[in-house]
Amino acid sequence: GQLRKHYGLESSDYSRFVNKLEMKALLKEKGILVPKFISFNKTRFTSNPNDYLEMFCEEIGFPMFVKPIDQSSCAGAEKINNLQELEFWGKRILKDNWEYEVDEFIEGTLFHCDSFIKNHTILFTQVSQCMKPCFNFIQGETKGSIALSEHCEDYHALQLYTEKVLSNLGIPPAGVTHLEVFKLTNGKYIFLEIAYRPPGILIPEMYKKHLGLDIRELHVSLQVDN
To answer: Reduced to 3 states, what is the DSSP secondary structure of residue 125?
Structure first.
C-alpha cells in the first residue's frame, strides 16, 4: 500500500486493512456494528493508572479483550476478567513497543469471508465457519474451518455483509481480502477485522480442494494489471 501510494498508483495506503482501530472507527461511522473499543494509552496509564483503568471499566466492562492494533495470529491477545488482571497487563506491556486496543469480549459463532476482487469489483466471496474463535487456539483448543455451501443459512447473508463492509471501507482494486465476523446469539453480525491478504494457516490448502484455486497465487495474479 505504501509503495502504491508512493508511485501514484493509489491515493492512500492500506492502513485501514492493518490498523484494527482505524478499520473499526471507519465502519462504525457507517453504521456497521463493531465491538466497543478504546485505544490503550501507555502515557495516560503511567501518569494516572487508577482513574485511567476505571474509565475502561465504565466504558467497556468485563470481560475485556486486549490485542495489538497491527499484529496477527493472536499475538499479544488476552482475555481480561477483572480490574486486577487489567492493571497487571497494563504494567507488563509498558516494556514492549506495541500499541494496543481494549475491546469488549464477544461471544458467538465466528465466520471468515474470503473475497476475490478485480477492477474494484467482488468476483466471488467464499464464506466459511470456524469451529472455534481464533483465540481459543492459543488456549489449547482445536481450531478448524468449514467451507460453507450456498445452501447454508448464513452463506448469502454474509456474502452481502462482506460487500457492505468492503464498500464502506473502500474496496481495493484487486486481490484477496480476508474478513472475520461474529454472529451473535440474537442473529446479528458484528465486525471483528479485515485484512487485504489471503487467509493463513491451512485455509489456502482447504480452498485448493474445495474450490480448485490457489488463493495465495490469485492474490498476486489478480493484481498484475491493476
So the answer is: strand
Structure confidence at residue 220 as a pLDDT band (50, 70, 90): very high
Residue burial 14-39, b: 16+ Cβ < 10 Å; e: rest: bebbbbbbebbebbeeeebebbbbbe
Decide if 194 contacts 160 (C-beta within 8 A): no
Ordered alpha helix ranges (H), the chain? 2-6, 20-29, 42-47, 49-59, 83-93, 134-137, 155-169, 203-210, 215-221
pTM given for the model:
0.89
**Contact of 113 with 125, CB cutoff 8 Å:** yes
**Which cell is 4 given?**
502504491
Confidence at 185, pLDDT banded by 50, 70, 90 = very high
178 and 194 Cβ atoms separated by less than 8 Å = yes
Task: Give the number of other Cβ atoms within 10 Å of residue 216's Cβ.
Answer: 17
Measured CA to CA, the distance from residue 85 to residue 79 in angstroms comes to 9
The Cα angle at residue 198 between residues 196 and 200, in degrees rounded to 5: 120
The residue assigned the cell 467451507 is 147
Q: Is 144 helix (H, G, I), strand (E, B) or coil?
A: coil
Nearest to 55 by CA among 71, 68, 40, 73: 40
Q: Using CA of residue 55, residue 59, residue 60, residue 61, what is the dihedral sign?
A: positive
3: CB partners within 8 A, 6+ apart: 9
